[in-house]
Amino acid sequence: MGSQFAGNSGWRKLDVGVIGGGIGGLSVAISLRRAGHKVTIYERADFAGEKGASVSCAANGTRWLEEWEIDVQKGDPVYLKKLISRDWYTGEPYSVYDLADYEKRWGYVYWMFHRQYMHAMLKEAALAEEGKGEAAKLLVNHKCKSIDMEANKIEFDNGVTATHDLIIGADGIGSAVRGVLGIHPEKRPGPASCLHANVMTEDAVRLGLTDYSKDNALEYWGGQEGKFDKIVLSPCNGGKLLSYYCFFPRDKGDYTSHTWGGDDLPVEELLAPYPELDRRVREHLAIGIEVQPWRLWIHDPYPYMNKKNVAILGDAAHPMMPHQSQGACMAIEDAAALGIVFNQKYFNGNVAEALEIYSQVRLPRVTKVQAAAAKAAYNINERIGFSSNTDVEGYKVEDESKKLTVEEMNGYDMYKDVEEKIAAQKGQPWTEKFITGLPIGLQLSNGVTIGA
Fold first, then answer.
1. Which of 47, 168, 315, 385 is most exposed, with minimal Cβ within 10 Å?
2. What CA–CA distances, in Å, run from 116 to 305, 334, 385?
3. Which of 105, 125, 23, 96 is nearest to 60 (CA)?
4. By C-alpha distance, which of 15, 17, 22, 14 is closest to 314?
C-alpha cells in the first residue's frame, strides 16, 4: 500500500479561505498550515472569540492537538480522571467510568477546556510566526455575503471580495456557506431547554459547599429515567471554574430566541425547574453567575459536506446535541481530515476530488455521533464511557449493537480511513487490515468485532 502514495507529483500549495474564526475555523487553519498551505481566516464579528463555557476534548480530539504541536497547557485545561453519573435526588454515584487507564489505552488524555481559553490557545497556534508552516492571517468584520462557486470568489458584506483555491465554511450552526452548497436544513427545536451557569470554586468553598473541583470529573445528575432533567458539571481552568449545563423539558421554559452574551437571567430561573434536585448541587446553582439560555435545535443529517472547491465543517456541517460531549472533537477531526487529504502524501492537485474523500471519510462518522448524541439526551447509558458500564443496575440502551463506544471513537485511524477511500476512488484494491479506519479484530464494548 505504501507505494501507492509515494512521490505524489501533483501536490501544490493552496491559497485557502476559511469563513469563521471559532474553534473549527482555527483548527482547520492550523491543520492546513501544517500541511503546507496559505490560510486566511475571515471572521464576521469585530473580534474572533468564543461565548459559552466548557469544551470537552477526549482522546480523539487531543491526538490532533498533539499532532499539530499545540501547547495544550496554554489552554489552562483540567485533566479529567472520571466520568460520574449521579442519582438526581441523592447525588449518589450511579455509574462511574474511570479514566485511570485511558491514556495508556488510547495514547492521549481527556482534557476539559474553558472555551475562551481553548480558543486563545488555537488562535495563537494558527497565527504565530513560529511553528511549522506559514502563519495564517485573520481578518475581522468580514461577513460572508455570497460565494461564486465557478470563480471561487467570496463576497463580503463590507464590499471586499477574495478569491481562493479552496474555501471552507466553519461558520457555525447558522452557516451561510451551507446555504451556498444548497443545503437548507429542516430544523426543529430540541425536546429540552438548557440554561448555562458558571460557579467559581472559591465561592463554593468559602460558603462551605461541596468542592466538586477535587473530583477532576465530568459529572452528571439525572438522565437515567428517560427524562430530560439533567445537570452536567464540567470543571475548567484547572478547576477554578465549574461550568454547569442545566437541561429540563421545554414545556417548563422555552427560550425561543437568544444569543450567547445577552443579559444574564436571574438565578431563580435556573433553580425553578429543580425543586427535588440533590441539595449539594442545588446549593451550587444558587450561587451561579452568568446564567444564559442555550437554544437547542435538532438537524437531521445533511447529505454531503462539499461541492466543487467548497466544504463545510463543524456545526456548519453536522450540528449535534451536546450529550456526547463530542461537538468540538468532531470539528477538530474535520479539520484533521482536511489537513490529511491536502497533505503532500495524498493531495494530487485536484481540490474537488480531495473534498470528495473528505466528505466520504467524515459523513458516516459524524452521522453516527449525531444520532448517539440525540439518544444520550434522555438516557445517560448511551453516553460514551457509561455505555461501557453494562453491569450497572438499570443499564439499558436502545440497541446494544448500535450504541456508540469508546473503542470506535478512540481506536480510529483517520489516515487509514483516508487511504481506503482514495483506493476506492482510484479503483484500487484495499488490502490493509482496517475498515473505515478501525482495525480488523478490534472488539467494541457493544459485542461487535470489526471485520467479523
1. 47
2. 27, 20, 26
3. 105
4. 22
CATH code linked to domain 2-78+107-185+300-439: 3.50.50.60
CATH architecture label of 191-298: 2-Layer Sandwich (3.30)
Q: Mind listing the pLDDT tens digit for each residue in 30-85?
A: 999 999 999 999 999 988 777 778 999 999 999 999 999 999 999 999 999 999 99
Domain extents in the chain: 2-78+107-185+300-439, 191-298
Q: What is the pLDDT of residues 270-312, one digit of tens each?
A: 999 999 999 999 999 999 999 999 888 888 899 999 999 999 9
Percent helix, strand, coil in the chain (nearest 5)?
35, 25, 45
CA distance 322 to 326: 7
Matching CATH topology for 2-78+107-185+300-439 and 191-298?
Answer: no
Q: What is the pTM of this model?
A: 0.96
Map grid coordinates 467479523 to a residue: 452
| Other CB atoms within 10 A of residue 348 CB | 15
